[in-house]
């Protein structure tokens, strides 16, 4: 579990801090006492989690594009980071089919802009680049992928993240070999949690269908993913960074659930509806027509992270779904969601 004695006063540059996962990382880092500077685009959904959290104040939020070297270098100069957590990305599989060139541009060249800006940063202790569980060449066998498995990807998003891994490795070996900082990537399973309103993701789709009292249409209801609550991989990232600052040197780690992804999309929907509680929902149905290709099975092996770090998954898939449903139910009741988010972080830390 991340230690406040490490993070208190530590200068952190967090890219992608206005996104779903980045907003949770921003909130937790602030709870730990870190001096956080964020660099990201304006949130592209309404509502959005960052706006709900920003009412608390604190931190330095910079709006800019990671593909813009001037914006990146200005963020580095402003933050003087001891730790860099690079989360900014085009993270949607379906959008990658519609926008393949921007997806590769952001996920590969944007990452290189960040690395180039921080490689000579004085006092840098750790740089962690967040990629994806989808970096592995997936044969739909259901086997849980380990860090040494072959990288690849058939859809533009997966391929761009695999390409990001290759570009990162080349950059570090070429330009950071003598750096005293730790440099690594982290590959996490499918995250769920409160405050995600992105298009074409299962939890926001459930919430939107429920609010509209529509039948939820599922493209691949029997597809399985390594579902985990968003706090699980963030805890892993922070533990990983602490270990890198202490001298751990490994190129990449997986962060995923204990059950390796045995929960189907259909089961996520049904468990969410049950955990949310009273209210009208119309169930789900198979979406008609053809859909862009997606892997039907995906699982990753987090054993290496559990071996090297004081980290382990703390929530079962059912608990992760329940915590997520409870967050949206609280939002729909009009509760203070910054406070509710902090309460879930505190509850997670106590497990």
Could you characterize the architecture of this molecule?
- Helices cover 43% and strands 14% of the residues.
- It is of the alpha/beta class and 351 residues long.
- The protein has a 7-stranded parallel beta sheet with strand order 3-2-1-4-5-6-11, with helices on both faces. Strands 7-10 form a two-stranded parallel ribbon.
- The N and C termini lie close together (9 Å).
Concise structural overview:
The protein is an alpha/beta fold and about 350 residues long.
Detail the topology: elements first, then pairings.
Elements: H1 4-7, E1 11-15, H2 20-31, E2 35-40, H3 49-54, E3 60-63, H4 69-79, E4 83-86, H5 93-98, H6 100-118, E5 126-130, H7 156-175, E6 182-188, E7 191-192, H8 202-212, E8 216-218, E9 224-225, E10 228-229, H9 231-245, E11 252-255, E12 263-264, H10 265-276, E13 284-286, H11 303-308, H12 317-332, H13 337-349
Parallel strand pairs: 1-2, 1-4, 2-3, 4-5, 5-6, 6-11, 7-10, 8-13
Antiparallel strand pairs: 9-12
Helix pairs in contact: 4-6, 6-7, 10-12, 12-13
